[in-house]
Amino acid sequence: MKTGKNKYRDGGYITVYVALSLGIIISLITTMLIAARNRTIRFQTECVADLGINSLLAEYNRELLQQYKLFFIDSAYGSGNGNPENVAKHLIHYMNINYDECSSGILGKGKDLTACRADNALISGISYASDNKGRVLRYQIDRYMKAIYGLDMISDSINNEKDLEAYLSDYDAYCGERDSANGQVDEIMNELNSNLEEDEEPYSISNPADSVGTLTQGTALYYAVKDPAAMRFGRTDISGLISGRNIRDGEGLRPYQKAPDDLVSRQLFYKYIFDQCGYYSDEKDGSALTYQIEYLIVGKDSDMENMEEIADKIFKTRYAINMAYLMSSGSKQMEAEEMALAATSAIGLPELTEAVKWTILFAWGYAESAKDMRILYDGHGLTLIKTDASWNTPLAQMVAFAACLDDYTPPGGDMDYKKYLTLFLESADYDRTTMRLMDIMEMDIRLTPGNSNFRMDNAIYQFYATANISSAYNYDCSIKRFATYE
Q1: Which structural domain, as residue segments, surrounds residue 177?
Q2: Total-model pTM
């Protein structure tokens, strides 16, 4: 019996020990379960956040991609009132959709082991397309173009030969010399006539150059295009476009993102412009302005004004080139002198020959430049340096040059209209061109359904997203992610 009593007494000790140990074990297991749940919530939140971010990036503006091959989120989502809060709401929506999917798993609806919800989100560190005068836009264009064409882009512009300002300076100088020659002729004629008796007939000269002088005040586009009336000239209100309004500022590029301002990037940028925008002889359908690259250079609100100014710029460069040739050509100067001598001898004033010769040379250069315009706008190339072989206007045609514009032999040069536009783009301010490119994007995308209020300073390239998460099991957390199209 003694043995039995010891047996029951030992069993009581074991029961107490097990009871005490079980409490510790249950506490340990519960703690481990809570820790596992919290860790699961963190992991689930990371997955859901990544899915939400990817869903946001998938909301890129479709028209920007289709027309300009660019990925940007329109933070206005078609409303015109763009702000980061719109993006944050979309992120919360996508995260909670994925949390709901997690709660309807094998345990069934309402038996979620994490029971998480995204309560709020903050979008910060935003890079808008327009930041730093469009540098973010150029950055994405640069990455796109390098992916398409690679890095071996070499400029084929004539900037290395002579820049635009030098041509325009030469043009102004030649105009000054032309006015001086005309003034000299007028001065001599006035002096002669002032010494005549009252009954004497005043002197007058039939200067062949005068017939050209009466046409020099017109637009060069008149000579360039055979039928300007057949051209489609658009007009649009540019006052509300991005280059002319106050815009929101973002964070711009990150320190590790190289600014696309080197020579190769600039050439790729100009190549992109010609790939995506319309210009004379290669117009873009469905655009607000027919001649978009001309707008990038000039910036007026009508195609007519932009085309006229481009034609005027080209004409001035051609006039400078043609006059440089005439100044160096002994044979052409001899022809002009013979014509001048015939005109002055007819009135017995050979002393006027030299001055009249120069007026004829300047008029001849004008006539050749007008024909150059017709050649160029007909789709042919011109030579950078004029020679006897590439000169297309005989002196006999000078008086009636406007009727002889189609009488030419294409010189076979490589200076075509597109190359002139490239020259003008390269000579223009880089940032201003970028802002006007965003004007083009805005005006065209606004023509598409659902985008009537589209703004490029609502277009987001990259951002930080911070989301705050709560669980029905009294565990809260937050997560921060960087989202970019890079």
Answers
A1: 153-445
A2: 0.86
